[in-house]
């Protein structure tokens, strides 16, 4: 197979291409597509399994399943121990336990209240670069099945065609690139570059820190590509992002809406899910009508942009309009975030697909259309039978 490198950029929306001359030129000479992002996009499986995430029930990190929750043991901890010190103990002990069980997808419990934590499980226990992380073959499963050697890095996990393991390097995109270049003897190199996503959440898209980092990222990618092209003139380059972001204008405080209700709820940054009896859910629905967003229950579930399945969507799903953040929420309760993703479908979240060869005339593709184009360029039959 022709030597290939795949840069997976977190949070770099299509609109940022103007700040990245190398990527823009690469796409204009080869293939450049705007990528339409699915509603409530949170995870990579839609891209790397080439399936709509609503069909995979992988549009959220946590779902309601008390029986399989890795945090079920926390029910022995009194609620007055719900503080940062005990949260760290819970977090690290659970991560260690899950790693020893062979799992590779680790998430912080952040601000999920202990009284609710025991009710939730992770939608995926394995990283998307791991072996067989979900019920259908992923991009990396197909590479492995075709006998293609690869090295993929998603901090702090690495994966090859032979094994997956833990490899901790400094949490910096340059270090991630250095890590994969140590394995350039492999046919396929993959790096998930995650730093920009955090900067965009913190500063918003208008801050000069964002522009400066995009230019730095562009230069780093150019440097890696030029170095590899000297050794491998036929090198195939893919640069893909998962989503853009919308600047946040205002917070939506649902604290009083859920107060004194006999429900279990999960407050994400852009959506609220609630589980409870009909009367309690109806009370909540009526109160949420004052906020900017859409509310879905069993009565109008056919209009919901994702599959309305109780364990995942709750008995009620409230999605705020783009530009708003549920605040406080289970991931952020200190300061209103500057930019966010995971809304209902909007062109502001469009991602990008760049390839140094011409493989399609399409100007816009869905997230689940990315890997079929990669397979087409690499002349790999897919999906794996």
From the structure above, extract its key features.
385 residues; alpha/beta; Alkaline Phosphatase, subunit A; Gyrase A, domain 2; 3 domains; nine-stranded mixed sheet; four-stranded antiparallel sheet; globular
Protein described:
The protein is α/β, with parallel strands linked by helices and 385 residues long. It has a 9-stranded mixed beta sheet with strand order 7-6-5-8-1-9-18-2-19, sandwiched between helices. The chain has 3 domains: 211 residues, Alkaline Phosphatase, subunit A, CATH 3.40.720; 61 residues, no CATH class; 88 residues, 2-Layer Sandwich (Gyrase A, domain 2), CATH 3.30.1360. It contains 13 helices and 19 strands. The mean pLDDT is 94.
Radius of gyration: 21 Å
Q: If you consult CATH, what is the topology of the largest domain?
A: Alkaline Phosphatase, subunit A
Structure class: alpha/beta
Level-1 CATH class name of the largest domain: Alpha Beta
Mean of all residue-level pLDDT scores:
94
> Helical element count?
13
Helix content: 25-40%
What's the overall geometry? globular
Number of strands: 19
- Widest beta sheet: strand line-up: 7-6-5-8-1-9-18-2-19
What is the annotated CATH architecture of the largest domain? Answer: 3-Layer(aba) Sandwich
Largest sheet: number of strands, sense, barrel closure: 9 strands, mixed
Q: List segments where confidence is low: pLDDT < 50 over at least 5 consecutive residues.
A: none
């Amino acid at each position: 197979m022709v030597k290939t490198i795949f840069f997976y950029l977190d949070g770099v929306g299509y609109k940022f291409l103007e700040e990245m001359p190398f990527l823009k030129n690469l796409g204009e000479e080869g293939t450049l597509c705007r990528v339409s992002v699915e509603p409530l996009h949170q995870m990579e499986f839609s891209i790397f399994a080439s399936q709509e995430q609503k069909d995979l029930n992988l549009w959220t990190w946590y779902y309601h399943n008390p029986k399989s929750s890795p945090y079920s043991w926390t029910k022995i901890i009194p609620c007055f121990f719900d503080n940062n010190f005990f949260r760290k103990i819970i977090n690290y002990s659970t991560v260690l336990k899950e790693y020893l069980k062979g799992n590779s997808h680790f998430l912080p419990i952040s601000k999920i209240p202990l009284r609710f934590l025991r009710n939730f499980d992770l939608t995926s226990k394995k990283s998307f670069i791991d072996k067989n992380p979900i019920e259908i073959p992923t991009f990396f499963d197909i590479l492995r099945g075709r006998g293609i050697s690869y090295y993929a890095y998603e901090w702090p996990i690495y994966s090859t065609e032979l094994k997956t393991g833990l490899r901790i390097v400094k949490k910096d995109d340059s270090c991630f690139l250095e890590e994969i270049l140590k394995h350039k003897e492999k046919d396929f190199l993959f790096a998930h570059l995650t730093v920009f996503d955090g900067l965009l959440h913190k500063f918003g898209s208008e801050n000069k820190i964002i522009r400066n980092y995009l230019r730095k990222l562009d230069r780093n990618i150019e440097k890696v590509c030029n170095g590899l092209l000297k050794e491998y003139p036929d090198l195939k380059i893919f640069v893909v992002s998962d989503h853009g972001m919308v600047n946040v204008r205002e917070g939506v405080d649902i604290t009083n809406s859920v107060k004194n209700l006999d429900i279990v709820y999960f407050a994400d940054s852009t959506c609220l899910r609630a589980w409870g009896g009909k009367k309690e859910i109806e009370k909540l629905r009526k109160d949420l009508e004052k906020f900017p967003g859409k509310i879905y229950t069993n009565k109008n579930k056919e209009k919901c942009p994702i599959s309305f399945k109780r364990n995942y969507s709750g008995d009620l799903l409230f999605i705020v309009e783009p530009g708003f953040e549920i605040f406080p929420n289970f991931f952020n309760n200190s300061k209103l975030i500057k930019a966010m993703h995971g809304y209902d479908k909007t062109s502001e979240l469009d991602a990008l697909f760049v390839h140094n060869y011409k493989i399609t005339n399409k100007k816009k593709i869905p997230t689940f259309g990315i890997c079929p184009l990669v397979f087409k360029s690499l002349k790999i039959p897919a999906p794996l039978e």
